[in-house]
Amino acid sequence: LGVQPLIGEHATKERVLAELKRGVSVIHFAAHGCEENGQIFLAPSQPSTTNNIPEEKDYILTMKEAQDSRIRAQLVVLSCCHTGRGEIKSEGVVGMTRAFLAAGARSVVASLWAIADEATMLFMVKFYSHLKNGESASRSLQQAMKEMRETEKYKEPKYWAAFFLIGDDVLPSLCN
C-alpha cells in the first residue's frame, strides 16, 4: 500500500499516537487486544530493563486516548483480538470501535474474538486486495469472508466471522 508500518519495538504508544494525527485514508492495527475491553497493547514507550517492568500506561492504548486522537481516517482496521468488545451501556457498546468513530474515523473494522494469526493474516490480505481493487469496505469484508469460507483450512466461522464493520460504507483511496 506504499506505507512504512510501525513494527515491533517501533510501534510504541507514543509514536502510534503521534502517527494517528497524520491525515491518512486507512489506519491498520495488528496487535493484541485486551479481552475485557478491547484496549490495544503496543510496545512500551520506555525501554524496559530486567528491573523496570513497564507500567500499563506506557503500552496500552486506552479508549480515551483513541477518542482524543482526532483522526481523519476513512477507515480504521483493528486486527486485534476482542477490539469489538466493550462495556454494554444504555447508549450501546462502549469500546475501542466507538472510540475511533468518536475520534473522527468514518468506519471501523474490528473483531469480536481471538483468531489464529495465520488465518487473520490471510483474511486481511483478502480484505485489502478487494479494497485496493476499488471495492467498498463492506463489499471487501463480505468477499474476504466468502473466500475464507471457500478454503478447506479456514471454512469454519471461527476463522472469519469475528470481523465486522461499523460506520459508513467507505471507499478509501489506497495507493496502487
From TrEMBL:
Domain (CHAT): give its ranges.
4-168
InterPro entries of this UniProt entry?
CHAT_dom
Which Pfam families is this protein grouped with? CHAT
Q: Signal peptide: which range, if any?
A: none
Which residue windows are coiled coil?
Answer: none
Query: Protein name, please?
Result: CHAT domain-containing protein
What is the organism field in this record? Exaiptasia diaphana (Tropical sea anemone)
**Phylogenetic classification of the source organism:** Eukaryota, Metazoa, Cnidaria, Anthozoa, Hexacorallia
